[in-house]
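Before the break, one more example. Copy the sequence into your notebook; we will annotate it together after we see the structure.
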Amino acid sequence: MKILIIEDEPGIVEVLSGFLAADGHEIIAADTGEAGLERFAADNPDLVLLDVMLPGIDGWEVLRRIREESDRPVILITALGRTDDRVKGLSLGADDFIGKPFAWEEVRARIGAVMRRYRPVPPPFEIHDEAKEVLVGGRTVQLSRKEYRLLSLLASAPGRVFSHKEIISRLWRPDAHATAQDVQKYIYLLRRKLEDDPSNPKLIITVRGFGYRLANPRR
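Here is what the structure looks like once it is written out:
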């Protein structure tokens, strides 16, 4: 796995990095909360080992910001043993705790337990904008230009409802005189190509009286 260690004590980083690398993991390290958030965004790690007591932005705030955009596993490394600290960490979305000082065997066991519980949900499709290509389950799906633009629009803000009027204004020229029926036609065509059961769509959702939205995927 790719593991991000956010810890300001060099000795702990060195020990953890050595053991984790010996187990075949790729290690990324940051010694402040700000740097940790930057590395998380840039490197997309599979797991985060996060110290609570960090200079600048502390571990609680780092965890809160990570949870705003991702459910990747986060294990807190902490010398805090109070129950209310553990409750706070769990309420913010921590997956587990490692207390200082720690034994490597415990670290390995806790990482293994957390990762067994975590099973990322693969995205229902992938959009490769440079190639103007859409993949479903690794298979290329042929879309027309209008279908591709409609899917890209919906995917630009998963969970947001796009009205017929907005879709028309974004995809058709003003002189095209497109109607809600034209939008419905392309929604139908997209569902046929992307949905397991187009008659019972789970991906492109109709919000009656308002428009359409892309199901908000697990991040």
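The chain has a mean pLDDT of 91. Residues 28 and 43 are 8 Å apart (CA to CA). Try to locate both features in your own notes.
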